[in-house]
Fold:
Amino acid sequence: MFRFALRFALYDRAKSIGVILGIVVSTFLVGQQVGIFLFLTGSMSSLVDNTEADIWVIDSRTTDANALGAIDVRIGRQAESVPGVAAVYPLIVSGGRARFEGGKSSPVTVVGSQPPAFRGGPWKIQYGDLSELVEESAVAIDHYDRGELNDATVGTRFEIGGRTVRVAVQTKGVRSFGGIYVFSTLETARVVTRFPLNDVSAFLIDVEEGADPVAVRDRLNATLPNVRAWTKRGLSETTVDTILSSSGIAYSIGTLVVFAFIAGMVIIGLTMYSAAVDRTRDYGTLKAIGAKNGYIRNLILVQALAFALIGYGVGVALVELFRNAIASSGVIYDYGTTFRIVFFLLTLAIALGGAVFAMRRIASLEPASVFKN
Structure:
């Protein structure tokens, strides 16, 4: 049957190419939009996702890790006494403004962690070593932020909050949601952002080996006043949910994905329907010599499956080209195995869904119609 279906497809190459192009365009648009969505949601929670701590303790009113409020440093000492807590690390996250020679300036988010653990980052280190951040006024910046940071690299000096800092470490691929991360020690972060001496932004907590992070989180919430403890995954998810619910990102991208899906199905359906109408006499002849509707239906489905495989292959190749092209500007994301499977099934749905138009047309065809005219 496959060879027979292929001959049908090759008979009208223009329409076959039209169907494949419809699949390619739909696949590319869906892949492009989903890729951008993955990057944005990944950057929203990157600070949480890339820490090694099991639990975050933050201000009780905050549900977004990108907008942490200040909490009393004494909370950390209370947290250390809670059963199941192995270690507590203070973290400062505060805004600042970097200024460079020539007058250029740029807003930055300074993340200060306690050495030598540096639980709050940086990660993905390209040049330098974490131990170099211990030096006075040393900071880490990311390769992809160099343009915003006046082409700063390892050894460059510039000012944050009127204090001179020196780039000692460079990362590659540390992205934030709409900002620029500058990593340092707690002391440097406190000085350059003028963060209150008795406050921190969060405490990152390691639980004892074998302890259940959820149980420790509940004990922390029952013990500590005016703060809220989150598991790492819990804070990551609520951060993404908070940003998505307060912005139009999910609605905007979701609408484009649905539109690409529907447009692809309609284009493919109408093109295959048109091809089926052009081959009405051939399909009618098959029915006249005994072919059942099931055989005709399978014949059309095999053509749609072949179109889907070719269109998916070309579409995915274009999506990967697009992904690699924008990765050079720091827009980095990975689809993962699960999404790739869903992506393939979605392409099949577009192609096979579009084939329904043609199958309905041929199913109603009377075999005797081929003898008319």
